[in-house]
Design brief:
Blueprint (H helix, E strand, L loop, with lengths): L1 H28 L2 H27 L14 H30 L8 H26 L7 H7 L3 H30 L3 H30 L5 H12 L4 E13 L2 E10 L5 H18 L3 E9 L16
Parallel strand pairs: 2-3
Antiparallel strand pairs: 1-2
Helix pairs in contact: 1-2, 1-4, 1-6, 2-3, 2-6, 2-7, 3-7, 4-6, 6-7
Length: 313
């Protein structure tokens, strides 16, 4: 969480510094694309605040209303961020761009825009570098896209995508602004706004897809499940693991439910001790598993299809 916070704070500082300057430059130069970039930076600033709020809410301890804690608050607010990128970022930028394509305005004093774009690129680039370095520490050797798909902490890859889209958006605006100024084709400025909006909508769909998956409930990987199966079945009191269900409550908290068949000759006390022992073994081996529910099953229950033995909630 501390690493995610670092990238979020760096992105927040960068967007806050440049959002106002983009709006001022856009107002002075009649630049639609600069206004679109100002909207983009404002949305990004709001997004970082929402992520920080989600992180703060997610670490609240369990209570009588949320016995498993508030971890999924982060997933909820991450989904809200993806919607904001779509609505406030993408749709507004496209609308602004279409208006200026239909009614183009000649750029005035474009030097302001170039200066702001240069500063924005420095700040956004620095924030992107921080986000890349922080996310790289969590990859564990996985390819970048696979690491994003497997990540259970949306605050990390959300900032990565936002900063990446911001840098790419600045390049689009710069190229089309130069062409608009030098070729005297003011409608290209509006086209830049549309392209920035399309970019934001594309990014929002990717982020919404990942956030939705986490919000609905992702479980432990098949590899981890097999290791858990071997761990519990190695216990002398366990005959077999019949079912395993798991779901991430937060990036650092997993709820685990197992149905086990125990030796038939165990007394109630022996069974209780075995369950406590297995629970402690699992938590010691996997500190991410915070909640372990073990349900014993009678040996006489008919064997089910092995394909149902392990599945994810």
């Amino acid at each position: 969480m501390a690493r995610a916070n670092k990238s979020i704070y760096s992105a927040l500082a960068a967007n806050l510094l440049i959002a106002v300057t983009k709006f001022i430059a856009g107002a002075f130069t009649n630049s639609s694309s600069m206004i679109a970039e100002g909207i983009h930076s404002t949305v990004d600033t709001s997004n970082q605040l929402l992520l920080l709020y989600g992180l703060k809410r997610s670490v609240k301890p369990p209570d009588k209303y949320r016995p498993f804690g508030y971890g999924k608050e982060l997933y909820f607010w991450s989904f809200i961020v993806s919607i904001m990128i779509f609505g406030l970022g993408g749709v507004v930028s496209i609308s602004q761009g279409i208006t200026h394509i239909r009614h183009p305005e000649t750029l005035v004093n474009p030097g302001w825009n170039y200066a702001v774009l240069a500063l924005s690129f420095v700040f956004e680039g620095a924030s992107l570098i921080v986000a890349i370095k922080e996310f790289d520490k969590t990859r564990k050797g996985l390819p970048w896209w696979r690491a994003i798909i497997k990540s259970k902490d949306p605050s990390g890859f959300l900032v990565l995508f936002e900063d990446g889209a911001a840098v790419l958006g600045l390049l689009i605006v710069f190229v089309l602004m130069v062409l608009s100024h030098n070729l005297n084709m003011p409608f290209l400025d509006g086209l830049a706004s549309v392209l920035v909006g399309v970019l934001l909508i594309f990014v929002s769909f990717i982020l919404a897809r990942e956030s939705r998956s986490l919000l609905m409930g992702e479980g432990l990987t098949p590899e981890t499940q097999q290791k858990l199966k071997a761990l519990v079945e190695a216990d002398e009191d366990v005959i077999a693991l019949k079912s395993l269900l798991s779901t991430y409550q937060s990036p650092k908290e997993v709820l685990l439910l197992m149905i086990l068949t125990f030796q038939a000759d165990l007394t109630t006390e022996d069974l209780t001790n075995a369950i406590d022992r297995l629970r402690e073994k699992i938590k010691q081996e996997y500190n991410i598993i915070k909640f372990v529910i073990i349900q014993p099953q009678s040996v006489n229950v008919p064997e089910r299809d092995k394909s149902e033995d392990i599945y994810i909630l």
